[in-house]
Amino acid sequence: MGQFVSVTLIFETIKIYGTLNCCMLYVKKNVSVYDDQPNAHKRFMEKLDARIRNHDREIEKMCNFHHQGFVDAITELLKVRADAEKLMGQVSDTNRRLQDAGREVTAQTEEVIRCRIQQRNMATTVEKLQLCIPVLEMYSKLKEQLESKRYYSALKTMEQLENIYIPRVSQYRFCQIMAETLPKLREEIKEISMSDLKDFLESIRKHSDKIGETAMRQAQQHRTFNSEVQKQVTLSCAKPLYGLNGRTPLHHNGLSTEAADEEEMDEEVLTAQDLVDFSPVYRCLHIYTVLGDRETFENYYRKQRKKQARLVLQPQSNMHETVEGYRKYFNQIVGFFVVEDHILHATQGLVTRAFTDELWNMALSKIIAVLRTHSSYCSDPDLVLELKNLIVIFADTLQGYGFPVNRLFDLLFEVRDQYNETLLKKWALVFRDIFEQDNYSPIPVENEEEYKAVVSRFPFHDAEIEKVGINKIFISTEIDDMLRKSTNLLLTRTLSSCLQNLIKKPHIGLTELVQIIINTTHLEYACKYLEDFITNITNVSPETVHTTRLYGLSTFKDARHAAEGEIYTKLNQKIDEFIQLADYEWGMAESDGRASGYLMDLINFLRSTSQVFTHLPGKVAQTACMSACKHLATSLMQMLLDTELKQISMGAIQQFNLDVIQCERE
């Protein structure tokens, strides 16, 4: 009951406040009504105040009347709050237990619903997959083929997918995506094939050196083998070899079958396929052919190979310094053209004979220009000789693959001439070193037999003689001709020039000049042995028509004549040196009664020199003495006829006469 009273009191209070609000509205409304009356506002306010006071009294009465009930209601509410909280806790706990008990049922219900949905979806999926599985299997097969790089099979699988399988399930999105992917896969296959081709081109660029080295080594072995076969055939013609059955065992190019079999077993023949995998280029060519784009592939391959050819033909700047530089250059070129020859014969139309011939002609011109340039820097004859051998093997190798090499033989003649020049320069240095180190003293021997024994210790060196331009591609008469011409150049230009320079050197005295004359005499005598030695090498008799003669005799004669002339010149110079020491007192009263001191020194010098001249031929020594006497007489006459000489005393004339008499006595 108390609670009800309290609630009633609250509602009454609310009503009073509502009445007040209405009053306020009434006030606002009626203010405008009384605006046009005098003292309207004052009157209105008075009435309003009276009305408010009435309401206040009513509110006060009501509050006083219901105050105790309101207090009791509040007290009751405070007592009920604890029970309400307890009730709330019990309700919450009951709700929680109810939720826990129903959760498992709810979960099982949801699981049943989900399973039924899955069962329905699975049935639908199985039905649709029966149509899609063949497409997916074919696409999976396509992926496996791509991963295993079986691109041709992959292209066939794509064709089946597009024409047979995808149209059956074209309504599905994945099939549409698959159909859109197939053209991209074709482009991807083309790109992968092109990438494989690029890797192949890079691989053969790196392996060209090894391929060329192998090919050149095989060509060199084949050349050596043929040479040995020819020798054995020649020997067999002279003395046939018969087996036990009365038949010759020479069945394999002049070698016995057993020897040939052993040779084949010992030497494993390597080819370009053994060193390089050509499958990428075959595969790429096949794929581009299937895709109808073969021409693009052919143009690309040929363009790239032309670029590689230019790179291969570009030599290193220091190639001329070592034979390895030349060998690597030749190996790369041979490797390049061995690969092209293999591609020419292993594929149909990827490269043509016209294309390889064009490449070879371009390369050959470049090779010849490069070798001419770099070989001109070579100053070592051994390096030039090795270069010549490399050119021969290089030509043999490429000729074996069908490339024309006639222009290389012209280059060989140039290299041979350059080799001769470098060899002559080398021997010019050797001759100069020999002349500078020589003490120009005769070899002491007791008799002619001992002299011959000494001379026999200095035979002609086979290797050095053979280096003078011999080449295996020439017949014996040509070799003999070249060898004699080269020897003549060595004698007439190199040795002769060295001798002439030696004779003109200031430090070479009369004793050295005498020994040089003796040496040239013996060298001239040895020319016949040199002629015999060349004949033994070439087996060409010097009496054969058109055989080149050696110019050694004239070379050494010219050198000897130059040395003789230098003796006369140096002897006269020495006489002039003594004459310059003459100090005549042209105004002396009388002579000393003996020859002048400078003249006695000159006579002693001429005596010692004449001892040296005893080793010269008689005519040379006599000519030297006559030249010295004539020069001395001329010099003495010039002293008397000197324009600066104004007067001569009788004593000076007597002293000069004593000197002349002393000269006549000697």
UniProtKB/TrEMBL annotation:
Keyword Ligase attached: no
GO biological process terms, semicolon-separated: Golgi to plasma membrane transport; intracellular protein transport; vesicle tethering involved in exocytosis
Domain Exocyst complex component EXOC6/Sec15 N-terminal per the UniProt entry, residue ranges: 47-216
Keywords: Exocytosis, Transport
GO CC terms: exocyst; membrane
Keyword Transport attributed: yes
Annotated ranges, domain Exocyst complex subunit EXOC6/Sec15 C-terminal: 408-467, 477-665
UniProt xrefs under Pfam families: EXOC6_Sec15_N, Sec15_C
Similarity comment: family membership: Belongs to the SEC15 family.
Role according to the record: Component of the exocyst complex involved in the docking of exocytic vesicles with fusion sites on the plasma membrane.
Descriptive protein name: Exocyst complex component
Organism the protein comes from: Cyprinus carpio
